[in-house]
Amino acid sequence: MRELENKIGYSFKDKSLLRLALTHSSYANENGNPAHCNERLEFLGDSVLSIIVSEYIFAKFKNSLEGDLTKLRASLVCEKSLCEFSKELGIGDHILLGRGEEQNGGRQRPSILADAFEAVLAAIYLDAGMEQAKQHVLRFITEELKHRDNEVFKDYKTTLQEVIQRNREEQLTYVLTDESGPDHNKSFTVEVRLNSNVIGVGTGRSKKQAEQSAAKQALALMGIEE
User: Fold this and answer.
1) Cα separation, 116 vs 87, whole angstroms
2) Per-residue pLDDT for 150 more than 70?
3) Identified catalytic residue from 84, 101, 118, 127
4) Per-residue pLDDT at 193
């Protein structure tokens, strides 16, 4: 667990909290103690995560409406995002799994990795308090928002689609042309094509981000600034 503590950047005073956060229900069941798993910590971690992220984006995006903030928070704390954060820390290498779950690829299962991230967060919160928990979470959230830059609330794809729909004969498609990098830090390249002509190219950490970037470039080429 010391290796994981080093990656987290925090040394637990109560090591049993971290061990519990890494104990999957399948392992607890096999060892005759079904209550001794990370599900309760995951429950607490979900709430701690929500308040930290809510407070941060509330302060950062001062002019954004409640609906926009809700959508942003949901995208930052969704299973996919938490799974990626968990992979960055290598949490999957340290989870205690039952034999069946281990054989079925549980160590890479997104739901297990996401839940473990929340459980570890709760363990940090219980061991050291909210400020330490906040420090742990925000290093991931701030980095994620850097990649999104100022496009957080802009839907370039919808705008481009509305422009193209004015001429019903035109067909818009998005084509993935490149995918590179390790699982925890992938880069995607997408072309947006009008009929067979490339009108924009974008890159991003997800296909969705790459598509938005490509649509933004296409709009700029058309002289439409968002």
Assistant:
1) 11
2) no
3) 118
4) 96
